[in-house]
Amino acid sequence: MQYVYSSSPWLIPRDPGPVAALFARGGRPCTFRARHVFNFGEQPRAYLIERGLVGTYARNPEGEPVLIALFSPGTILGAEKSLKEEHLRVKPLQARVLLPVRALALDSAQFTRELAESPGLLELALRAFLSHDDSKIEGLLINGTLDLPSRLALMIATLFTALGQPLDGEPRPLPRQITVTELARLVHSSRPVLSRVLSRWAREKLIEGTPGAYLYNRRLLGSASAQPLQGKEELSA
Questions:
Q1: CA distances from 138 to 27, 78, 145, 160, 177 (A)
Q2: Distances in whole angstroms, Cα of residue 208 to Cα of each of 102, 158, 214, 216
Q3: Which of 91, 137, 178, 230 is the most buried (most CB within 10 A)?
Q4: Which among 85, 90, 102 is positioned nearest to 23, based on CA atoms?
Q5: 36-50, 63-77, 160-174: range with lowest mean pLDDT
Q6: Concatenated DSSP letters for 108-169?
Q7: How many helices (H) and strands (E) does the chain have?
Q8: Radius of gyration, CA atoms only, the chain
């Protein structure tokens, strides 16, 4: 497909080493278990993800979660929020731990202060954080305009990239913590609809294995034509 803003939809690019080093010097180690949910929009701090995977979400008018971005090792969660003057203001943003996380937490005020003391470092950070926004916008476009099989295929490929294992010719499973329910949440669908798509892919030999233990390889990327969404996906998936 042709991307608009970023070739890394959803997945935040790795942040520059000198910016991440601020967390190594002054950050507080913390860990989160898979499926842990916290309202990071209420917290005056940012996190450097060292291990694991985090998804961030807002809520639509119906109260359903809307995926904003995925943060993998080497990325800073809450960076842009921290740099704004009103960083103490509560924002309706939620983080969900998809894979067990080890991170370094740094108070937003300290993070902002240290960047402000080094114009070169601040410019480097701002350029990086612009790429954060590009990935978020691209992901929102995909979830809002592509049919479910297309965006599911792209999401699965993105998850393997986040794991450092881009899809190739070898069939591999997703981590057990990323269930069908979790996948459905990531692509703004429901578990029953998503299960039907996976079952159809299995019948068509696009994926291998059995329900709950599917194996994926790059053949999946040819399964979706990435067409604009036409009508209600639930009726055609």
A1: 30, 19, 10, 18, 25
A2: 32, 19, 6, 7
A3: 178
A4: 102
A5: 36-50
A6: HHHHHHHHHT-HHHHHHHHHHHHHHHHHHHHHHHHHHHB-HHHHHHHHHHHHHHHTT----S
A7: 8, 8
A8: 18
Of how many residues is the chain composed?
Answer: 237
The amino acid at 23: F
Structural tokens at position 157: 């490929």
Q: For residues 49 and 195, what is the distance between their CA atoms, to the nearest angstrom? A: 31
Largest CA distance in the chain: 59
More confident residue, 44 or 176: 176
DSSP string, 60-111: -TTS-EEEEEEE-TT-EETHHHHHSTTTTS----EEEEEEEEEEEEEEHHHH
pTM of the model: 0.90
Amino acid identity, position 214: Y
Q: At what angle do helices 119-145 and 17-26 cross, to 10 degrees?
A: 110
Per-residue pLDDT tens digits for 89-109: 667 889 999 999 999 999 988
Please list, in sequence order, all residues whose beta carbon lies within 8 angstroms of the beta carbon of residue 191, skipping any fewer than 6 positions away.
180, 181, 184
Ramachandran class of 35: left when φ > 0, alpha when ψ lies in -120 to 50, beta otherwise:
left
